[in-house]
């Protein structure tokens, strides 16, 4: 592992020192929520604003559990939104929904792709709708991103401001077996990190893969391309795919390929590579196999730095994989909060999750969830302007 990441003990020590320092500064986290319109079928939606008292603000809407914005200061202290999104509900429920772009949303029941929409559970084959032909993408025609979640609790504590959302997905929802109860807790901490803690249980055997699909641009929402940003990914391998983005079942080394971000690398340097994996995806849209054990304490999966603004973001997770996506399908058809159209390469998504199509690859980490078991994963986005 390179010095960019450092040892896990050093990382934890750094976090501890930063947290203590934030406490000494006596930051005062706050949380507030208010109405934010209604869905086309009349369901009311609310927006919850989390502030950590250090200049960072996160806003989450109950439709799709969407991260609507994250505002954080640059090296000069200038606060900007660093998440692509919209300033009204219609932008999510009608406009961008047509393109299947999942701005900021919680993805479920199965994030990423399932080959042909088919998947086995204890020997029986189930089917969810094909939404990215010839495969299913992100959980069917009405996945978790298109549901209104319930606010279960909000509050503040010594760690920061938090929100917990709940969604009950009935047996058979989008073809998935079992009644599934999911909680996602968003915490904007006094360590300047936004954490998403996913907890889910089922009453019958099922498969589950949850993630968040925020589009990040550390130079500011609507500011153009992320090609100058510098990325490092803590992964020696990835899961190569066929031309339809379904894994072959192999885990291949990143060394010698445009997917090698083991050292800090400018995203734009190899974005136009003629490597077949890059050509299939029209940019980066692959699952990296994060180094280190999964399902335990979150470890550093990636870090991205924007030299223009001085902002950096670390992605920590206890998921086994990290899908990195350079917004290859943004085509200028949607304008965000800034009033600027979003185009290909205007953001990068970091989808911490299990591998694509895992139920159809027994050698991959399992995505099965059974009664009595708890799906329990955390992903953290930690911001800095130093």
From TrEMBL:
InterPro entries: Ald1_epimerase_CS, Aldose_1-epimerase, Aldose_1/G6P_1-epimerase, Gal_mutarotase_sf_dom, Galactose_mutarotase-like, GH-type_carb-bd. Residues 1-27 form the signal peptide. The keyword Translocase does not apply. Pathway: Carbohydrate metabolism; hexose metabolism. It holds the Pfam family Aldose_epim. It comes from the Bacteria. Keywords: Carbohydrate metabolism, Isomerase, Signal. GO terms for cellular component: cytoplasm. Beta-D-galactose binds at residues 112-113, 213-215, 285. One of its GO terms (biological process) is glucose metabolic process. The active site is at residues 213, 351. Belongs to the aldose epimerase family. NCBIfam families: PRK11055.1 (NF008277). This is Aldose 1-epimerase.
């Amino acid at each position: 592992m390179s010095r960019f990441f450092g040892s896990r003990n050093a990382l934890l020590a750094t976090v501890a020192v930063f947290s203590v320092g934030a406490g000494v500064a006596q930051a005062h986290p706050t949380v507030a929520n208010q109405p934010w319109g209604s869905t086309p079928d009349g369901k009311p939606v609310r927006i919850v604003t989390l502030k950590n008292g250090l200049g960072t603000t996160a806003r989450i809407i109950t439709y799709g559990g969407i991260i609507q914005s994250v505002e954080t200061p640059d090296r000069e202290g200038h606060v900007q939104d660093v998440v692509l999104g919209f300033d009204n509900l219609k932008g999510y429920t009608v406009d961008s929904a047509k393109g299947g772009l999942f701005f900021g949303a919680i993805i479920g029941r199965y994030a990423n792709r399932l080959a042909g929409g088919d998947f086995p559970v204890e020997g029986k084959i189930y089917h969810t709708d094909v939404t990215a032909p010839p495969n299913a993408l992100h959980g069917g025609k009405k996945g978790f991103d298109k549901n209104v979640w319930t606010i279960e609790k909000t509050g503040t504590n010594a760690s920061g401001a938090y929100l917990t959302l709940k969604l009950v997905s009935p047996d058979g929802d989008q073809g998935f077996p079992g009644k599934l109860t999911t909680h996602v807790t968003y915490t904007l901490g006094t360590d300047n990190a936004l954490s998403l803690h996913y907890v889910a249980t089922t009453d019958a055997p099922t498969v589950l893969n949850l993630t968040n699909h925020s589009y990040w641009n550390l130079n500011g929402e609507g500011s153009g391309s992320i090609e100058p940003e510098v990325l490092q990914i803590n992964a020696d391998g990835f899961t190569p795919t066929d031309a339809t983005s379904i894994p072959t079942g192999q885990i291949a080394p990143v060394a010698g390929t445009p997917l090698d971000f083991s050292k800090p690398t400018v995203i734009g340097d190899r974005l136009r590579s003629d490597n077949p994996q890059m050509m299939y995806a029209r940019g980066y849209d692959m699952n990296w196999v994060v180094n280190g054990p999964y399902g335990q304490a979150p470890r550093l999966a990636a870090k991205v730095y924007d030299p223009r603004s001085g902002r950096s973001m670390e992605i920590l997770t206890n998921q086994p994989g990290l899908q990195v996506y350079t917004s290859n399908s943004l085509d200028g058809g949607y304008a965000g909060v800034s009033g600027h159209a979003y185009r290909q390469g205007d953001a990068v998504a970091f989808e911490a999750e299990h591998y694509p199509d895992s139920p159809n690859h027994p050698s991959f980490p399992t995505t099965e969830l059974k009664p009595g078991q708890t799906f329990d994963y955390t992903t953290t986005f930690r911001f800095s302007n130093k």
